[in-house]
Amino acid sequence: MPPVNPSATSAPSVLDLAPVVPVVVVDELGDAVPMARALVAGGLPAIEVTLRTPVALDAIRAIAAEVPGAVVGAGTVISPRHVADSVGAGARFLVSPGWTESLLAAMAGSGVPFLPGVSTTSEVVALLERGVSEMKFFPAEAAGGTAYLKSLGGPLPQARFCPTGGITSGTAPAYLALDNVGCVGGSWMLPADAVAAKDWARVESLAREAAALAQVS
């Protein structure tokens, strides 16, 4: 049986949780909980922790256990093992930069919503054929940006996207204004100097500004 649309699960769609999903790279495990608390306090409950560092799974586990209101997910999911490990750590959604048949099957069988990555029309059609209509568009800016997504809306209106990759606070509103975009992914609310200084108040303030984009898009 082919994968099914993640929106058909009992969990809410990732695309509808907040206008912006912070894409988080956790280098120091001790940063995970205060960072997530700042993001949630700022109005961004869906947090994608990328599996790019040795502490990523422990960070997901800590956020899931210690940050009420956080909907923590795993990003850069590129193998069935990643799927199993992420869900085991407490991830409530999965995001991949691309997909293969085995990865798609593992995500579909995980029991949590998932956003497989696409960057071409053929990939979108292939997922729609398999019953998946919610996707990550990556790398958004390099793959054609808002013009490309707007063009997809005509022939493929059933596909909805979370564009990620190169998006900033300045470009996010143009993406959010598109009918086929539910949210965007980005990391501009987590500037490196603020994270290094553990300036969680600044992160919360930037998160609040990002959450407010829903009112102007």
Explain what you see.
- The protein has 217 residues and is α/β, with parallel strands linked by helices.
- Helix content is 38%, strand content 15%.
- The chain has helices at residues 29-41, 56-66, 80-89, 101-108, 121-129, 145-153, 172-176, 192-196, 200-211; strands spanning 20-24, 46-50, 71-75, 94-95, 114-115, 117-118, 134-137, 160-163, 184-186.
- The strands form three sheets. Strands 3-2-1-9 form a four-stranded parallel β-sheet.
- Helix 1 crosses helix 2 (56-66).
- The chain is globular.
- The chain starts with 19 loop residues before the first strand and ends in a 6-residue tail after the last helix.
- The model is unreliable at 5-9 (pLDDT under 50).
Summary keywords:
217 residues, alpha/beta, 4-stranded parallel sheet, 3-stranded parallel sheet, 9 strands, 15% strand
Distance between the termini: 38 Å
Strand content: 5-15%
Rg for CA atoms: 16 Å
Total number of β-strand segments? 9
* Secondary-structure element order, N to C: EHEHEHEHEEHEHEHEHH
Poorly predicted runs = 5-9
